[in-house]
Amino acid sequence: MKLAVTSLEHIHKKGRFGNYQKQSGKKLLEISEVKNLAIIHLVQYKKSKIQPSTIKVEDLDLPLESLKVTTNKETRILWNAPRTWLIISNKKNIVSTIKNTCDNENFAVTDISHSRAVIQIKGLQAKEVLKKGCPININKITVNHCSGTVFNGITVVVDFVDNNPDTFNLFALRSFGETFYHHITDAALEFGYAGI
């Protein structure tokens, strides 16, 4: 069952594009839209007396250091700002799980799932594609780290998911989804990519 029409529903193309003829299958970049994710914005109120280090969501600690990500197979918690996190999950009941752990006296829990376009780029040249539009030093980001940045002027969150091969989830506002997708795919043409 489809949850909703995504911002890239009629934009994302499957197939091989760009300079793919010179690349073997394992070296070819893959670009896909990540669908049906729950994206929850969790903010701890300033008046809260609870220590964030005592909170667990899906048996994961809330990361307390900037740029850190805690993760298991279904859920990733991204440090977004002091006392602020993005919780990304494949679990359908994640909102109720978070609300049971983080009461409304101490936390604001906002489901922003349908306000984001999520693109995954995977492959040996993924960092090179990101370098074309991001001012941050992509080489210094390691697995299970994230960063808020811009890509060709569009505000994004970059989440480094895996390094075998390099895999990044890129989050942009839904209204910028189509433009962001075209910027990413255009930057990938030099290396060739497969739309998955």
Overview of this protein structure:
The protein has 196 residues and is mainly beta. The protein is built from three helices and 14 strands. The strands form three sheets. Strands 1-14-2-10-13-12-11 form a seven-stranded mixed sheet. Strand 7 (75-81) and strand 8 form a beta hairpin. The longest helix has 12 residues, at 177-188.
- Percent helix, as a range, is 10-25%
Radius of gyration: 17 Å
Distance between the termini: 20 Å
Name the structural class: mainly beta
Strand content: 35-45%
Low-confidence stretches: none
Give the count of helical stretches. 3
Describe the largest sheet: 7 strands, mixed
What strand order characterises the main sheet?
Answer: 1-14-2-10-13-12-11
- What is the H/E string? EEEEEEEEHEEHEEEHE
> Mean pLDDT score, rounded?
94
Shape: elongated
Number of strands: 14
